[in-house]
Write a structure and sequence with these properties.
Helix content: 25-40%
Structural class: alpha/beta
Radius of gyration: 21 Å
Number of domains: 2
Strand order of the largest sheet: 7-6-8-9-10-11
Largest sheet: 6 strands, parallel
Oligomer: single chain
Distance between the termini: 30 Å
Number of strands: 11
CATH architecture of the largest domain: 3-Layer(aba) Sandwich
Strand content: 5-15%
Shape: elongated
Length: about 300
């Protein structure tokens, strides 16, 4: 029997690619830039499976281009705001994501950002690199100690809970919005606010001028979820008005573009979407997407359907 045809929109780790290639005929888009919408619609024709990344916009038009052959769309990510899920599923196509496997890596990065921001690590690194350090002083570059502080978490999913589980190691008390207290109560009482909620119409610009005005002026904001949750115009305004002490962002509203107002601010840590960026996790994500495709195209249920 001939192998099913699968479109892979970007190269994945070799172990996962070998598993896919052993079971399917693979049409690989082997480039550093994503397929354009027109290219994606052309390449998906005649494919039974589509493995995509968060940089690929999958809507009804893409799925229609793949019908009647297309059986599954597998997103190599836990979030899926790049996919019109109702459009995919209404056409009888299975949609899967990659939950669980990136939880620990994203939680670790979140704590890296919290520590970097609280103790001004990246700011100090920049200072040294530009030759501006003049030596130790008692009152030089003082940061915030985490022990005894409150960590407010927006989003009580796998990643949010994993971040909270690490809080006691730093002497912090973790609280969840809606579960332990209202969002307003969390904002006015938390020393660090960490965002882990999905991107939805309801969470778009959840952090805005009103939200920032409610936070402690000594508070730090960390976002490792999705860029659309934070209104970057409002964030720049709040930082310039000293309404919060700093922010660390792994995700941005218009990736890979970053709001120009954030770039000159020393109390901002900017990271290029590295939440799941460990060798172990990215390999596990790709492998799970591949196993979902192989399962569905073999007539079996998907492992992680959305």
């Amino acid at each position: 029997m001939s192998k099913p045809n699968v479109l892979l929109t970007r190269r994945i780790p070799s172990a996962a690619f070998a598993r896919l290639e052993a079971a399917c005929d693979v049409d690989l888009h082997d480039a550093s830039t994503p397929l354009t919408p027109d290219e994606l619609k052309e390449r998906v024709k005649g494919k039974q499976g589509l493995i995509c990344l968060l940089t690929d916009r999958i809507d009804g038009a893409v799925v229609d281009a793949g019908l009647p052959d297309l059986k599954i769309v597998a997103n190599v990510a836990v979030g899926y705001d790049n996919v019109d899920v109702p459009a995919v599923k209404s056409r009888g196509v299975v949609f899967t994501n990659t939950p669980d496997v990136l939880t620990e890596a994203t939680a670790e990065l979140t704590w890296g950002l919290i520590l970097s921001l609280a103790r001004r690590v990246t700011e100090g690194d920049r200072l040294i690199r530009r030759g501006a350090w003049r030596g130790w002083a008692l009152d030089f570059m003082l940061g915030m100690e985490l022990r005894g502080k409150q960590l407010g978490i927006i989003g009580r999913g796998r990643i949010g809970r994993a971040v909270a589980a690490r809080a006691p190691a730093f002497g912090m008390t973790a609280v969840f919005a809606k579960h332990d207290m209202s969002l307003d109560e969390l904002l006015v009482s938390s020393d660090v606010v960490s965002v882990h909620t999905p991107s939805t119409p309801e969470t778009r610009h959840l952090f805005n001028r009103r939200t920032f005005a409610r936070m402690k002026r000594s508070a730090l904001l960390v976002n490792t979820a999705r860029g659309s949750i934070v209104d970057e115009d409002a964030l720049v305004w709040a930082l310039n008005e000293h309404l919060l002490a700093g922010a660390a962002l792994d995700v941005f509203e218009k990736e890979p573009a970053v709001h120009p107002g954030l770039l000159p601010l020393e109390n901002v840590v900017l990271v290029p979407h590295l939440g799941s960026a460990t060798r172990e996790t990215r390999t596990a994500m790709a492998d799970l997407a591949v196993r979902n495709v192989i399962a569905v195209l073999s007539g079996e249920p998907p492992l992680t359907p959305v």
